[in-house]
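We modelled the chain as a single entity of 274 amino acids. Its sequence is:
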Amino acid sequence: MTQLETLSSVQGRALLRDIYRELRFERQLSGVATLRICWQICTRERELVRLTKRDVVVLHPLGVWNGTSLWMQEIVNRYFYAAINAFVYLGAALLLVAVGLNRTRVIDSPIIVVVGVILEAVLLIALFTVMFFTPADEPDELLAKGEGPGAMTDELLRELGEIGRDYAAMAVQLETIGSALLDVVERQDTLIRAVRESVDTAVSAVAPNPGLMTSMQETTAALASLSQSVSSLDERLRSVERQEVERLVRVELERILSRTIIDNANAPSSPTSR
């Protein structure tokens, strides 16, 4: 047996919704019977086991006023609001039909219009009453799922942990992206330097710079000096060649003269000389 302080607590509201589901869907009671039993439980019932399968004892019943308020919030508003709203629309439609018939003189009786207005007013009052007791969903829904303040704290801590892990993963990804971007920047700088050097080389090849012109002038001067040196060397070689030819001619003449003299000296004397 479970003891419950009051049905107006969060646990009691969740229990009341479970009792409605049990009566309506498990025991297949009608809507009117379900409303009557739920109102009895909310207002004065202490031992719920007499009306439901719940072995629960309510220590402090709410009474007629507070119990009816809880019954309106947790039963009527939650499960019968759509039906009441539909009846309000139906009453409005019937009132429009009654006014139309009275205006077109099909039924010339103002009583129908008065009845329609009264019916619509009653339905609107009922809708106002149901909407006035609209419950706060958030605490009840949390407890209906078996969650309390500790569970909410744990959930918040889990969410904070997940957010921290997401931030850590994001930081790692950002570091990886930063490293990749630095690598790309370095490669781009290298490529820019290579392109700049290529452009400078092409510009230098197309439009010679002053240094190249100076080098070309110096090379021209050196070539002219070399040409003069070669010309001087050619003249000297020719002079040496003439001198060598003259020397060879003298040597040959000397050899011929010496030979002639020797031949004449060795020749026999003629008879006349004798």
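As a brief sanity check on the tokenised model: Residues 2-147 form one domain. The CA atoms of residues 48 and 56 lie 6 Å apart.
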